[in-house]
Design a protein that fits this description.
The complex is a heterodimer of chains A (220) and B (263). Chain A is of the alpha/beta class and 220 residues long. Chain A contains seven helices and nine strands. Chain A has a six-stranded mixed sheet with strand order 5-6-7-3-8-9, with helices on both faces. A three-stranded antiparallel sheet of chain A has the order 2-1-4, covered by helices on one side. In chain A, 45% of the residues are buried. In chain B, helix 2 packs across helix 5, helix 3 runs parallel beside helix 6 and helix 3 crosses helix 9. Classes of the chains: A alpha/beta (220), B mainly alpha (263). Chains A and B meet through helix 2 of A and helix 1 and helix 11 of B.
């Protein structure tokens, strides 16, 4: 269960900043997958980062009673000058992989299917290969909740199918909180939705209603 | 992979281990001669200084110690401190991508990097002792415990200073240039090249405010039986600086953690 209470967030930069999130409240029950919707810049990624514990709110709290992954996305998390294998080893060590590192590596390799590129520097990867590696890496650990920030956006059809299947296999064991603009993917994977608009968040028990509200707001 | 819930201490140890190995790989394989440069830099440094001092001539006598080993010890100690500071203060900016994993805290990146620098310097020092012994110089420490003590203390000092400056440099990137410039006068005022005994007493008083001078002099007394450090050198004074800086550094890391993560 993830509980978000009275969450406020703003960025303190040299140019100041308005509230990105104002008084956000919702509770994600166990084993319910949620899609985060909103236009660009609405604060979806910010919310995901706060849920993942990467960033801290200015006010309010987030309670995580479960094992939550890092936000799986396009940017960050990999060191470009190191190979895929080295990056995987690093993350496995951080997460207490210990002597299971070889097993984790083979799981990532199986999922990512990037062949020889696994032993080449990550900076030589295409964006699709990176997201395959990132997704495979997070799936090698048994988290209760996976956070995905547009991680599937650049993948090809085979990869999307694979990712979808991986989550369907885990229904009842794990859930996902995803930021995505791909309606099909959201409908496939999520039951509930959160629509973020003008800094406030609205919870929908049904993802379709969340998608409708979001589309209405952007006049589609 | 399913594992039992880890304690914060276990997580921290795991992160340090991972960061240390990662930094080591990056440092040794940065380019084709990176591993060579680790050894070549201090040796080249010493060789250059010896050459300059030979040209200068008259100053080659240090009371109670052989000149070249005397120089080697000071330079190696100072290079460790300098590398820890210069590389440690950039650690947070260089590892920004890793803060995607909430287990990794800014302070961990600085500590891992300084730990690695210290370990590499220790290897370099051991090799230098071996090498200069082979060349017939007397560089085997006469009081090994004193040497280990001062070496360890300066290692901690480098960490403390790096912890402080990493906060400063991450918040104010421009400050990095000035901090690096500070290293130059510090080098000359630490008695590495010119024995402080040669300075007039009135000046020595002020030079003794510099903790690195204390460290350099003290480690030399550990190496050479007959070497006598400048009057006023104090282990306590050095310790005060070291633990003061470590404490202040950790405090700053704690206080500004969110700001360091956010940038």
């Amino acid at each position: 269960m993830i509980e978000v209470r009275n969450l406020y967030k703003r960025y303190h930069g040299p140019f100041g900043g308005d509230w990105v999130l104002k008084d956000v409240n919702f509770t994600i029950p166990d084993n319910v997958s949620v899609g985060l919707l909103g236009r660009n810049g609405a604060g979806k990624s910010t919310l995901l980062r706060i849920i993942g514990g990467m960033d801290s709110p200015d006010k309010g709290t987030v309670n995580r009673d479960c094992r939550v992954s890092w936000p799986i996305g396009l940017g960050g998390g990999f060191q470009g000058s190191m190979t895929g294998r080295q990056n995987v080893k690093f993350v496995a060590r951080i997460h207490g992989g210990g002597d299971r590192i070889p097993e984790i590596i083979s799981r990532v390799q199986d999922f990512a299917e990037i062949g020889k590129a696994f032993d080449q520097p990550v900076k030589t990867y295409s964006s699709g290969m990176r997201s395959r590696l990132a997704f495979g890496l997070s799936l090698a650990f048994d988290f209760d909740v996976y956070l995905s920030d547009e991680a599937t956006a650049v993948g090809d059809a085979a990869f999307k199918a694979k990712a979808t299947k991986a989550f369907k296999d885990r229904v009842g064991k794990a859930s996902i909180v995803m930021v995505s603009h791909q309606v099909g993917m959201l409908k496939d994977l999520c039951q509930a939705g959160v629509w973020i608009n003008n800094g406030t968040a609205t919870w929908f028990d049904d993802i379709n209603e969340a998608i409708n509200s979001y589309h209405k707001s952007i006049g589609k | 992979m399913q594992s039992a819930k880890r304690t914060p201490w276990q997580i921290t140890i795991g992160v340090w281990q991972a960061l240390f190995l990662r930094e080591a790989v990056a440092r040794i394989s940065a380019d084709r001669v990176a591993w060579l440069w680790l050894l070549a830099e201090p040796i080249a440094h010493v060789a250059l200084l010896v050459w300059v001092r030979t040209l200068a001539g008259s100053l080659r006598i240090v009371a109670g110690a052989e000149f070249i080993p005397w120089l080697v010890i000071g330079v190696t100690l100072f290079i460790m401190f300098r590398n820890q500071m210069n590389r440690g203060m950039e650690a947070i900016a260089a590892n920004r991508g890793l803060f995607a994993y909430r287990q990794v805290q800014p302070v961990d990146t600085v500590l891992a990097r300084c730990g690695l620098e210290g370990a590499l310097s220790t290897i370099v020092l051991s090799l230098m002792i071996f090498l200069f012994s082979l060349l017939g110089h007397n560089v085997v420490p006469h009081h090994p415990m004193v040497v280990l003590h001062i070496w360890g203390i300066v290692w901690a000092f480098g960490m403390g200073v790096a912890l402080i400056f990493s906060v400063v440099v991450t918040s104010l990137p421009e400050a990095g240039k000035f901090i690096r410039m500070l290293m130059f006068p510090l080098y000359f005022l630490s008695g590495i090249l010119i024995p402080v005994q040669y300075f007039p007493h009135d000046l020595q008083q002020y030079l003794l405010y510099n903790p690195m001078l204390h460290a350099v002099e003290l480690i030399r007394t550990g190496f050479f039986e007959t070497y006598r450090a400048v009057d006023g050198v104090s282990v306590l004074y050095l310790h005060q600086w070291v633990w003061g800086s470590v404490f202040l550094g950790l405090l700053l890391q704690l206080r500004f953690k969110q700001r360091l993560l956010a940038q």
